[in-house]
Fold:
Amino acid sequence: MYTQSFSVSDEPGKQQKAVLSTESPELMARFDARIDADGRIEPQDWMPEAYRKTLVRQISQHAHSEIVGMLPEGNWISRAPSLKRKAILIAKVQDEGGHGLYLYSAAETLGTSRDQMLDGLHSGKAKYSSIFNYPTLNWADVGVIGWLVDGAAIMNQVPLCRCSYGPYARAMVRVCKEESFHQRQGYEGLLVMMQGTEEQKAMVQDAVNRWWWKCLAMFGPPDADSPNSAQGMRWGIKRVSNDDLRQKFIDATVPQAKVLGVTLPDPDLKWNEERGHHDYGQIDWSEFWDTVNGNGPCNKERLSTRVKAHNDGAWVREAAIAHARKQQQRQIKEAA
Ligand code: 3HC
Structure:
């Protein structure tokens, strides 16, 4: 079901037969030449199995991040401080759901069904971004997620618009436009709070203090400890390394924090004239890996909420399938 470009079986093992082809040196050379010329690979093109697997791995992680990312902010829809803020938040959370759908569709063009990917997520095997395993404790967290989390996501995703795999690159163009709106609404919400009471200002600072380091970890492990980066960059899937994106994000965010009137919780954060970048302190990588491996503060809660939502929605999927079957039967009857 759900497949957009060609039919993919949901039975494990079966779908691979449809997409596997022999890895001959000529095909490999043609593929390498296209990558070297900065060309695009499309679903109907031959591609090495390792390229396909890398893309499915990254797109699956990305799609799940969008879907699980709806949960921490979704918690605040019923508690938004005004109708305007509620309407903005509902639209934003809905956008994230849409991003997940574009990405599941992009992965389907590689021969992996949405059901397979969701099974991976729900069984705890598939990864999603570490950032969504932290709690949203006050209303300022919603603004900070927009400003910093979506800001970090944009920094990572703008280069993905030039990814060598066409469907992923094209999905990213729209995702980045929407993420840019998300980032601005978050920043604007915080600007309003920073013009408010002392209590509101303290809420913003508290939220920034809690999210800052987690956002820096979002970019993934340091380049030297990133097992997938070198090959991902060789294939033009990733265009900028984890550390370079992290540095760009820090350099862009420091002046924004100044305008907002908050401090960033890092005593080692300072401009380095020689490097032309900000130096920054040590990220807690053991906490990052604990969270990635399922032991963050909210991993279990996020997964159980997600599984419950999926199970509760079974009747919608069944109704859609029944409707599609009925329509198909009607068309066959009319054509006969
Ligand atoms: N959270 C969870 N897992 C992470 C992670 C993070 N922040 N950063 C890295 N990892 C995982 C990787 O997925 C990889 O796992 P695997 O080998 O088991 O698949 C492992 O840690 C090693 O990391 P690498 O640096 O070698 O992995 P990659 O080369 O794939 O780079 C990445 C990691 C930069 C996250 C890359 O996958 C990427 O750019 N992904 C697409 C963007 C994305 O996933 N964004 C999610 C952010 S949130 C979001 O988009 C939602 C928005 O609404 C805010």
